[in-house]
Amino acid sequence: MSTSHFADEPSQLPLDYLRGLTSMNKDVSVDEQYRVLHVRNPDRSKVALISGGGSGHEPAHAGFVGSNSLTAAVGGNIFASPNTAQVRRALDIVKNEKGTLVIVKRYTGDVLHFGMAGESAQHDVEFLIVGDDVAVGKTQGKIVGRRGLAGTTLVYKVAGHLAAHGADLAEVKRIAELVAENCGTIGSSFAHCHVPGTAKSEPTLKDGEIEIGMGIHNENGVSKTTQTNKASLVENMVEMITSTSDPERSFVPWKAGDKAVVMLNNLGGLSELELVGLVPHTLAALAKRQIEVVRLFVGTFMSSLDMPGFSITALRLPETDADTILAGIDATSSAPGWRPATVPVLNPEPTPASAGKAEKVEASGLTSSDLFITAIRAGCQNVIAAEPDITRYDVIAGDGDCGLTLKAGAEAILAAIDAGKITPKDVVNSIRTVSEIVENDMGGTSGALYAIFFSALAKALAVAPKGEATADTWAKAAKSALDVLYGYTRARPPSRTLMDPLVVFIDALPKSGLAKAAEEAKVAATETANLQAAAGRAAYVDQEALKKEAVPDPGAWGLALLFSGFASAASA
């Protein structure tokens, strides 16, 4: 297995990908010798479309072979153009009565090899070179021209739909050229990608630095920035795409009132979480220029292996043939690389805060002394102070978030006390508030367990005698809440979870009192360092390694500190 990549042999990756596509789509076949993926039984009475280029840009190009898209795609080695023989084989496979349109990105190798194959073809072949990159200025690119980027895939989609519906070669090429001429693309990334089979190079970007205008073959961009504000970064990129005043980058004649098809493309290493989060900023930047986005593609369409970045493509719908172009954009396709386009919503209305809110709950009649607030404050402050230790324990025994999760809940509870939402004058509703806070502000497994426990505790206290809550009231309510919690978790002591100190504390409370119960809970939490995990995240960790580290369960330790805070406040 190749280091850093799931590849027995890096050079086999392009063919492995093509083989995988044939398993995903019964309508395609692969010529393994020439690495040509093609529609299994192409309609010879219709124009064929072929494309291709170096591998490493998946799903481009082979992922777009299918209905209403490409007829065939030729795969070169990673970041290297296929050779002329491969392209000739693709032309032979799709040979038909109506002719073939060859669509390639503007890179020297692709243009030469596809061009030579087309020139020697024995049937009608037209050639279209796509260059949608706005990073390379007109002066710099005077001879080589603009590079082909993700906008090329939109050409496939529109031209493929026209060809499938019987348009002749001249018409397919005319509309395809119209799409290409009205496309602009710019990308940005936190790093260059790693090519399988090569040694890893030293990073060219500092932490937090972003390169704008990088090519999809690791070519350097036009500028670097430490701009960490997403809106500003996207605004800068959209300006480069749509500017009509920049003499170097005014490639498309944008104007106010134009309609656009927009593609937000993952360059390979960006999470879906981050990519989709860029959508509102992209729409807002275009709306600011009075450009209406009528269709939106979001996903991975033309990658650069594992590059941690994204590109924005904007296709201006021209005054003529806009309906034809949109019909192609909207057409369904069997090609797995296509996600459907959506009609975006600008400034969607969020759910009103009042929606579904419960009616105001009347005071419960159960009260407490000021010790109620003092104890909660002390417990929360204990947890907040111990966050670094709890986090360190969780890095070893879990996923590293327990300390911050508990701290967030504790801080929110203290804020609620300061706001008068938690008060000794109404114990039941105060505990309900605590349950709501941990549910909303903590998250994770611990947040859910705390929320269930406090919700059940509030229900048990609600049926207690009115007046000031006694130690016996608290002990019985806590036991009732524990019984409810047992219905939601299979963890029982000893389990190396927060259930260890919780059960010990609740069992000791009626017999030994608060101080002794808190002390026994702390011992139980300390002992978790010597236990094998039976539940929780730690159950998935190497148990031998966990024992060597000898750290207590972070959730158990946090809960024990909460109880210690309660006890210290009561004895003060």
Oligomer: single chain
Biggest sheet architecture: 6 strands, mixed
**How many runs of DSSP E, i.e. beta strands?**
14
Tell me, what's the shape?
A: elongated
Strand content bin: 5-15%
CATH architecture assignment of the largest domain: 3-Layer(aba) Sandwich
At the third CATH level, what is the topology name of the largest domain?
Rossmann fold
Major beta sheet, strand line-up: 1-2-4-3-5-6
Give me the Rg, rounded: 31 Å
Please report the first level of CATH classification, the CATH class of the largest domain. Answer: Alpha Beta
| Helix content, binned percent | 40-55%
Number of helices: 18
What is the count of distinct domains?
Answer: 2
Structural classification:
alpha/beta
* CATH homology superfamily of the largest domain: Dihydroxyacetone kinase, domain 1
Amino- and carboxy-terminal Cα gap? 63 Å
Low-confidence stretches: none
Compute the average pLDDT. Answer: 91
